[in-house]
Amino acid sequence: MRIIGRFTQWLFILCIPLLVFTGTVAWAANSAWLYTAGFEKYHVQETLAENGLPLTDTQLEDIAHEFIRYFISGEEYIHLTVQSDGKTVELFNEEEIIHFKDVRDLFRLDYGVLLGTFIYCFIYTLVYLFWRKGSLHHLLARSAVIGSAVSLGIMMIIGIAMLLDFDTLFYNFHLISFSNDYWSAEGNMLRLFQGGFFNDMFAYGAMFAIVLSLI
Prior knowledge:
Distance between the termini: 31 Å
Low-confidence stretches: none
Number of helices: 8
Helix content: over 70%
Strand content: under 5%
């Protein structure tokens, strides 16, 4: 019985960093503000116009919401068109569309891990809150503190790596995460999501994860 208790405790501790990380990714993927703020900061509207695709602020906002809708949908591929100079334009080429499918698959994996870790942590917490009339509350509290401390430690390591060489970190992430090189396909994808955009997203994500860990 003690072995089972130890196992469930350490599983709970390990689930907390996973819960924080996957929750942060889910928040970032579904935050329209992160998209539109990045579009504005990195002058995406001007960049697209210089490349023959003038769009309005409203159209850019619609693009952000379309990405959010696609990433939580059951659609295999994204087909995003915009109206520009009276013409209907396909925003992405075939390689970019395939890459966004790969990204969507990663997000779906993230949502699955998020749901699984949340369910386990929720059940574990309920058991320790109501089992033996509170005699194990201190164990639950200690486990939560350890798990949160591990989360903070991981965020510190990632933060230091970002400060030292974000480009290398981001490049290696793509090599590990994707089985093809379509993430470097040239087109509107790179004009919408410029290098600084992801740097900012990682930074906001790290801050969000730190807040979750402290809570």
